[in-house]
Each structure stands twice: as C-alpha cells, then as structure tokens.
Amino acid sequence: MATQPDIKLFGKWSFDDIEVNDISLEDYIAVKPKFAVYVPHTAGRYQKKRFRKAQCPIVERLVASLMMHGRNNGKKLLAVRIVKHAFEIINLLTDQNPIQVVVDAIINSGPREDATRIGSAGVVRRQAVDISPLRRVNQAIWLLTTGARESAFRNIKTVAECLADELINAAKGSSNSYAIKKKDEIERVAKANR
User: Fold this and answer.
1) d(Cα 3, Cα 147) in Å, to the nearest integer?
2) Phi, psi for 149 (deg, rounded to 5)
3) Interval 53-87: pLDDT, tens
4) pTM score
C-alpha cells in the first residue's frame, strides 16, 4: 500500500501546520490532521449524542451553520461551494491558509462571558456567567455566518465574498466584523451585570 498523500481540504488547503492559539478551545476546534477531510460534507451523525459535534471538522460546522433561513435549509452542497469560494478569496487577500484564518476568527469571536437571566417571582435580573468552550465555538460560528448572511442580503456582494471578509476581519480582531462587534457587546453587558 502506497503512503497516503496528505489529506487537503478541497484538494489544496493543508491541515498540517494549523495551530489553535487558545488552549481552552483546542479540544473543541477539530482541525488536527486526524480530522482532515477533502470536502466538508461527511454526513456524520454529530447530533446523536451530547458533545459529539465537537468531533465534527470545524469547516463542516461552518458549512452547516451557513444553511439557515428557510430557503437555504438542507442545501449543503450550495453551502460547501460558498465556503470553497470564500476560502479562495481569503487565500488571495491574505496569502494565509484559510483554515488557519477560520480558526483564528473562531477564537476571536467567541464571547467569553455572557449575561443570563436569573428570575424568580417576577423579578428578572441579569447575572454574568462564564461561557463553556463548546458554547464559545458554537456562538462564534453562529455569529460569523450570521454576519456574512446579513451583509450579503440585498447586496451585490456574494455570500462567499462577505463570508471571506467577515472571517478575515474576525481573524484580525478588527471591529469591522459583525461577530467581533457582537462579542464585545455581549461581554460589555455581562461586565455590567457582574
């Protein structure tokens, strides 16, 4: 049996030298070569069990999160194509491995603290709580795709372009990104309610 070639996403992006710079999220962002896939469409059953979705390749989670809002439900191939184009754009704009950009964007845009509602007998007050690593990843993916979707809606720019911009800005931590703005807002509210 010949040695297996490195598995590269879409045949060109390598999973080898991707580092997750946040130690708390290492187990929840699946980018190790063990999770390498050619296409982010594995048809795995990631919702069967709690925390199974942490095993889902991170790019596939991004794809799954893109197919929202009734008319796009279940169109995973469309979402895969959008992500593929977005990755091409990211590579052209930044000359980095787009998977690394995605990982950085997710690390930067997951809120670390949130305010929850503690209410008893009609008195509702907010209480600041820490967010678990898995929820940080989930929230980050959701914020990134929502930002891309909103900026692409009624706009000449394609979803792929908006997604690329969103990911690049979030990876840089610049406040032009919807996800970063939301994260700062969530953390600010939480800080006020400590």
Assistant:
1) 41
2) -65, -45
3) 888 888 888 888 888 888 888 888 989 999 999 99
4) 0.87
**Nearest-angstrom CA–CA distance, 58 and 93:** 21
| Cα separation values, 30 from 19, 141, 158, Å | 11, 13, 27
- Which range in 6-10, 40-44, 97-101 is most confidently predicted, on average pLDDT? 97-101
Helix (H, G, I), strand (E, B) or coil at 30: strand
Q: Give me the long-range contacts of 72-79 (CB less than 8 A, separation at least 24).
A: 76/41, 77/41
Q: Which two tokens stand for residue 176?
A: 């032009």
Up-side HSE of residue 134: CA atoms within 13 Å toward CB? 7
Residue type, 112: R
Count of beta carbons in the 10 Å neighbourhood of residue 134: 16
CA distance 106 to 25: 9
Written as one string, the DSSP assignment of 136-166 is: HHHHHHHHHHHHHHHHHTTSSS-HHHHHHHH
b/e map 88-122, b = 16+ CB within 10 Å: bbbbeebeebbbbbbbbbbbbbbbebbbeeeeeee
Give the whole-angstrom CA distance, residue 52 versus residue 46.
Answer: 5
Token reading at 185: 């807002």
The residue whose two tokens read 């949130």 is 114
Q: What is the pLDDT of residue 89?
A: 92
Q: Which residue has the tokens 């010949």?
A: 2
